[in-house]
UniProtKB/TrEMBL annotation:
Keyword vocabulary terms for this entry: Oxidoreductase
Protein name (database record): Glyoxylate reductase
A Pfam family reported for this protein in Swiss-Prot or TrEMBL: 2-Hacid_dh
Source organism of this protein record: Phycomyces blakesleeanus (strain ATCC 8743b / DSM 1359 / FGSC 10004 / NBRC 33097 / NRRL 1555)
Domain (D-isomer specific 2-hydroxyacid dehydrogenase NAD-binding): residue spans on this chain: 112-289
D-isomer specific 2-hydroxyacid dehydrogenase catalytic domain span: 4-320
Length: 322
């Protein structure tokens, strides 16, 4: 019987499907992340690993696993937690979960963009703290999307879905920047490929939808924020590492930009005393962009599909091809 290690309980349908297979299942069943030490101890001799974005997949872990490991399936679309070259040199394929979380993630990106633009956090705090005295003409005024410019950093599946959604709210111009021009996607969203500096200077809303790589690490630093409009809203639902976070705090405090919405931070979880949590113009959510029942079930199911294929020596149906 193949041994399958799963670092967490999966959503109910995928979990039931997993349990119905003839696997020897090794699974961390506590409501917390599987400790690294536990993972290193348990992985010896397993044939397949289902992991999360909170598990680091590197040489140390793969050495501990041994030669019979046939695949790794991560329940995420991002895989910056995986050392792809370490897998490659061992010829171990990597499964992931593209496409199925595009809608959920784009929805949450819109929520954060609109929430930050309309000063939702300040509004909620005011209502709950008794600061809502009367209707006031200039109180809590934010910005609206009509005839504004959206800047998408990384016009992939999620970036495209964000652009379509925000155009429905009145965005009249889309500019994007990334590793390369995306001609077809650009046409679909009516977006113009521009330099990073032009995107910063022209956008009223900047949404980060790219992967964390060595090229995007701390791409948004003080210098970048200082090139943005003072009225701009910055939203990151990709990875915290794309932002130089202390610089973002400064940018918000000094009014270089008007507000921010973040679903990802450095580190995660964000310590309670972090300034971002205290800033009225910064909304922080706990990395929940893909967190709908539908999407999480589908992501977990894709991991199971990948495991089934990999264990029968077939190509993974959802695999990283870089
Ligand atoms: C979530 O952040 C993912 O990469 O799936
Ligand atoms: C707002 O509530 C309005 O009636 O203008």
């Amino acid at each position: 019987m193949p041994k399958v290690l799963v670092t967490r309980i999966l959503p109910p349908h995928a979990q039931a499907r997993l349990e119905s297979q003839s696997f020897e299942l090794i699974q961390w069943k506590q409501d917390s992340a599987m400790p690294r030490k536990e993972l290193l101890g348990q992985i010896k001799g397993v044939d397949a690993l289902i992991c999360l974005l909170t598990d680091r997949i590197d040489d140390e872990l793969l050495d501990a696993a041994g030669p019979q490991l046939k695949l790794v399936a991560t329940m995420s679309v991002g895989y910056d937690h995986v050392d792809v070259s370490a897998l490659k040199k061992r010829r171990i394929p990597l499964g992931y979960t593209p496409d199925v979380l595009t809608d959920a993630t784009a929805d949450l990106t819109v929520l954060l963009t609109m929430g930050a633009a309309r000063r939702m956090k300040e509004g909620i705090i005011a209502a709950e703290k008794g600061e809502w005295r009367e209707w006031r003409p200039t109180w809590l005024c934010g910005s609206q999307f009509s005839n504004k410019t959206l800047g998408v950093v990384g016009l992939g599946r999620i970036g495209e879905a964000v652009a379509h959604r925000l155009k429905a709210f009145g965005i009249s111009k889309v500019v994007y920047w990334g590793r390369s021009e995306k001609v077809e996607t650009g046409k679909r969203v009516g977006g113009e490929f521009v330099s990073f500096d032009r995107l910063l200077a022209e956008s009223d809303y900047v949404t980060v939808c790219c992967a964390l790589t060595k090229d995007t690490k701390e791409l948004f630093d003080y210098n970048a924020f200082s090139k943005m409009k003072k009225s701009a809203i910055f939203v990151n639902t990709a990875r915290g590492g794309i932002v130089q976070q202390d610089d973002l705090v400064r940018a918000l405090e000094e009014g270089l930009i008007a507000g921010a919405g973040l679903d990802v931070t450095t580190p995660e979880p964000l310590p309670l005393d972090n300034k971002l949590l205290k800033l009225p113009n910064c909304i922080v959510l706990p990395h929940i962009a893909s967190a709908t029942n539908e999407t999480r079930e589908r992501m977990a199911d894709m991991c199971v599909e990948n495991v089934l294929a990999g264990l029968s020596n077939q190509a993974l149906p959802f695999s990283v091809t870089e």
